[in-house]
From TrEMBL:
The gene is pyrF. This is Orotidine 5'-phosphate decarboxylase. The lineage of its organism: Bacteria, Bacillati, Bacillota, Bacilli, Bacillales. Pathway: Pyrimidine metabolism; UMP biosynthesis via de novo pathway; UMP from orotate: step 2/2. It comes from Paenibacillus aceti. Residues 10-237 form the Orotidine 5'-phosphate decarboxylase domain. Catalyzes the decarboxylation of orotidine 5'-monophosphate (OMP) to uridine 5'-monophosphate (UMP). It holds the Pfam family OMPdecase. The active site is at residue 67. CDD domains: OMP_decarboxylase_like.
Amino acid sequence: MNRFEQAAGRLMVALDYPTAERARELIKTLEGIPCYMKVGMQLYYSAGPDFVRELKERGYSVFLDLKMHDIPNTVKNGAYSLTSLGVDMFNVHAAGGLKMMKAAKEGVMEALSASPSLKQPILIGVTQLTSTDQKMLNQELGIPGTVEESVVCYASLTKEAGLDGVVASPLEVRAIKETCGQDFKTVTPGIRPAGSAVGDQSRTLTPLEAMKQGTDYIVVGRPIITAPSPRDAALQIIEEMKQAW
Ligand SMILES: O=c1ccn([C@@H]2O[C@H](COP(=O)(O)O)[C@@H](O)[C@H]2O)c(=O)[nH]1
């Protein structure tokens, strides 16, 4: 694998579109770039599992970003379904607690036992959303301490539950890896190339800065999908990622 492919495989493009048709247009412009495709609630709720199967048939790795958060039994059954669907990565909210996250892992393992040809998905916990800032954490959510402390606390809980990693901002990657180990995966949204609009994100870094923090995957939506040329935007981000090595 060359450096371009290595970097592209760590870029997750957020297909935040209302329909499969719109997502397909973007995918066409990114042809030949072996990035991960992230399917979130907007697209999944409209296009469903068929669109995930289509992405898999086209050879993409798929992160299904549905952030499950429910009682343990429900999450276990959801995890069973998503594992059976063949996604490469999916997530649950760490705020659902240890029992809920362990149940998610059980759902994965039961699906794998029922269909041994399935590949085990990477299962990750969402810590604090990258839109959450210090004031919101303390005053709205009623969680004391710093954002980093809360993120590391959720990351430790996620590891204890047997999951593979977390979603966090790139600003917390070093602290997460120091506490949970270098192999514990970090998936980081809140990526903003220099000069691009921050929007509703609160905890951001550029692609290069995020890679230098040691993140495993960067998630990029609007800076690519709303760019005049999404292909050029994605290629520029990959070039920036490569500079970290
Ligand atoms: O904490 C989180 C968890 C998930 N996301 C998702 O990542 C993308 C980011 O999109 P941008 O347009 O680059 O802001 C989006 O799909 C979110 O749902 C996140 O941003 N933060």
